[in-house]
Amino acid sequence: MSKNNKQFVEKITAMEDDFAQWYTDVVKQAELVDYGAVRGTMIIKPYGFAIWENIRDQLDRRFKETGHSNVSFPLFIPESMLQKEKDHIEGFAPEVAWVTKGGEEELEERICVRPTSEVLFGEYYAKNIHSYRDLPKLFNQWSNVVRWEKTTRPFLRSLEFLWQEGHTAHATQEEAEEETAQMLDIYAEICEDYLAIPVLRGKKTEKEKFAGAEYTLTVESLMHDGKALQSGTSHYFGTGFAEAFDIRYLNKDGEQQPVHQTSWGMSTRIMGALIMVHGDNRGLVIPPRIAPTQAMIVPVAQHKEGVLDKAYDLRDRLQHLVRVDIDSSDKKPGWKFNEYEMKGIPVRIEMGPKDIENEQVVLVRRDTGDKEFVPLSELEERLPALLEEVQQNIYNQALTHLNETTTTAKNMDEFKQALDEKPGFIQAMWCGDHTCEEKIKDETSATSRCIPFEQQHVSDSCVYCGREAKELVYWARAY
Amino acid sequence: MSKNNKQFVEKITAMEDDFAQWYTDVVKQAELVDYGAVRGTMIIKPYGFAIWENIRDQLDRRFKETGHSNVSFPLFIPESMLQKEKDHIEGFAPEVAWVTKGGEEELEERICVRPTSEVLFGEYYAKNIHSYRDLPKLFNQWSNVVRWEKTTRPFLRSLEFLWQEGHTAHATQEEAEEETAQMLDIYAEICEDYLAIPVLRGKKTEKEKFAGAEYTLTVESLMHDGKALQSGTSHYFGTGFAEAFDIRYLNKDGEQQPVHQTSWGMSTRIMGALIMVHGDNRGLVIPPRIAPTQAMIVPVAQHKEGVLDKAYDLRDRLQHLVRVDIDSSDKKPGWKFNEYEMKGIPVRIEMGPKDIENEQVVLVRRDTGDKEFVPLSELEERLPALLEEVQQNIYNQALTHLNETTTTAKNMDEFKQALDEKPGFIQAMWCGDHTCEEKIKDETSATSRCIPFEQQHVSDSCVYCGREAKELVYWARAY
């Protein structure tokens, strides 16, 4: 942990009083982020970045296991290239940052700072794919992208953010659709198994899909305040970009065919979900599997002889088993407790003279605050088990919250009542008409989050217009 | 390896005929890089990026072992902030890319796409450092930076490149200078022990130091054509940025003191060194310790029964020991040999029906082309040993080249003769006057590369002006 001179953790706003302020307070007090000099940009501080690095490493491993290669494409896109795919440019042009001058030179053509890189990959694939032997292309990059947002919040909506963007090209529709589904599964797995965030899996409506995609798959999670957050998306492009960029290959029968493409991304936005799904009024709660520090040793009465030595012995003993750290600074134990609670360290290990005498330590869980005395001889067994219990418990809590706030609405009265009284996801049937979707948004500010893969038939008619229902949709107010 | 339909590796230009063209050919044929759409930008392809990832991981591990934390600072810097440190802005302003428009909005203040991030870290440290307890700050980031270069070449000089930039703040000059030296040692270690690139260690002259630094330490390497390449630099800033940005801390005696700062960076330029130090007329030669694939199995007569099975068995046997891959595509073995020679895979493992019968394989070294027959039973022992021999041999070759082309010059006739006849480093005494340095550059296009830490007294007078010599300098033409 960084040494710092803060002798106490400032109080944070209670989430029940002002959820947005609670979020801002936690982000700051837990030392995740600071503001950059240009409006809407962010500085991800060591603790925030260490969490992101762990998420990144977990994703990257799975990308490689499924045959993907990392690459690095340029930050800059010429304006003319961005305009090749019509839907795509319409979606992104309003939020592009433009470079118009390089050194002393006024540029003849404006250059766009990438908001996403489909067109660059499209151009590359057009040049580099000739035959079925060149397929599939399974590329990913870890990069920064810029979107000129009007209102910004750290992690949730920032002018620049970090993400990975996968871009793949395939010989057949079937293969590309399998890829699209596979990558969504990886996002769902990371959310549920590592970040302890339960997600809904489904397809975006036409209105909410990615600009230029044939369809978009999404995993959606639910925050403490009952608002949803899109946590990872995977897009199937069909042959749209292939037609726009002329990406064709010679198949085994000697025929020219367009490729089928996908793209998929997860970004630092997921850090926002991590904060808002698990955090409480004492700060962050970081799931053990993703926590940079899983257990923090806080020596008690450390000025007494032998305490610090024993605490360091303990650290050395445990560090091959769990990610453990020690705080031997001269801050008072109480301040340390507060600080590591704020940072959401899953387990605190207290050890003082009496514990040493009794050959035990005290384990304190961040999620429940429960304390237990554990004999030193059993610690190697108990600590990893406890971390797993914490992981499971915070997942279960989040799942309970998701389930308890998911309401079925058969008409707009029920819809609005649910939003008012128990904000969360609303299951409601939809006729498939985008005007109904828009009117729901206008009247409630809730948007369609996804058409779930697991369909149910909760009523016969569209929740808005009463016409024949086509499918079940999850709706929510969202970040 | 990526499957591709290239049935042969195109001939590359011989380096003796046209070194620049040889470089371009290798970069392309070995599938390291392609050109981006905006002039001077590059696409780092899977094989190139895999090499960079290995370099990055080695560096990152050492940064963390020495107590540094990764962070992520913004891509964008307001123009007014860039101007706070006078020397710094003078150095960078001519090569900055400017964002002047965001979405539809004309910006009131131009925004600079970072060419380096000293000012952002300076601003952050000013806000976040208050007391000696806040020190040291040991930050690093892996990022992309943009410099609007007029002439560009892949890796060597590109509009955008990838790098890491470390930025640290310390209580004392001594500690900051130790950090500066420590980080240079890490660069030297990576170059010599991993990239098999011998380096000269030293200090830059005033003329060649980083804009705004008090001094710059550098590791310099030598390419096949006798030109030098700056391979990693570490800067000591003294209190210059602290004064410009008002970064002060309260020391233990309650006095306000400016911090002492450093920054240090290694970039994708090092990929250029890797190519030009070890490559030959058959392509790349990648040092085993950094090679994404250390050994490539090429089955011979793979259509014969059992050959492919045995080849896969071999891969499975070896893959926990070395980074091994297999090419079972339907390309002819000869084409495969060429392709992996072009890509510089350290060792090729050939295995055909006769080898299987004799329970042996053929190992072919990339560096020397030597073949050896190795009994299967001895492979686990022999292969790692051979990889180490390759690593040592290519380092020794590079060191021999460096030593054999390092000339001592006592006057400008000797200096120019050496550059003409045996291009490499020139050791020559210097009076310390920057006009001599400039005149040497004007007359020979050689620049001072470093004032080596290990000084020798090779003559009494300055190689250019004949006045009393102050110190030994290494000179060379450089990338």
From TrEMBL, chains A, B:
Q: Which Gene3D superfamilies match?
A: Anticodon-binding domain, Bira Bifunctional Protein, Domain 2, C-terminal domain of ProRS
Q: Which GO terms describe its cellular component?
A: aminoacyl-tRNA synthetase multienzyme complex; cytoplasm
Q: Mention any Pfam family matching this sequence.
A: ProRS-C_1
Segment forming the signal sequence: none
Alphabetically, the GO molecular function entries are:
ATP binding; catalytic activity, acting on a protein; proline-tRNA ligase activity; transferase activity
Known catalytic reactions: tRNA(Pro) + L-proline + ATP = L-prolyl-tRNA(Pro) + AMP + diphosphate
Q: Name one GO biological process term.
A: prolyl-tRNA aminoacylation
Record's superkingdom?
Answer: Bacteria
Localization recorded for this chain is: Cytoplasm
Quaternary structure note: Homodimer.
Q: What is the stated purpose of this protein? A: Catalyzes the attachment of proline to tRNA(Pro) in a two-step reaction: proline is first activated by ATP to form Pro-AMP and then transferred to the acceptor end of tRNA(Pro).
Instruction: Give the record's family classification.
Output: Belongs to the class-II aminoacyl-tRNA synthetase family. ProS type 3 subfamily.
Name the UniProt record assigns to this protein:
Proline--tRNA ligase
**Source lineage:** Bacteria, Bacillati, Bacillota, Bacilli, Bacillales
UniProt gene name: proS
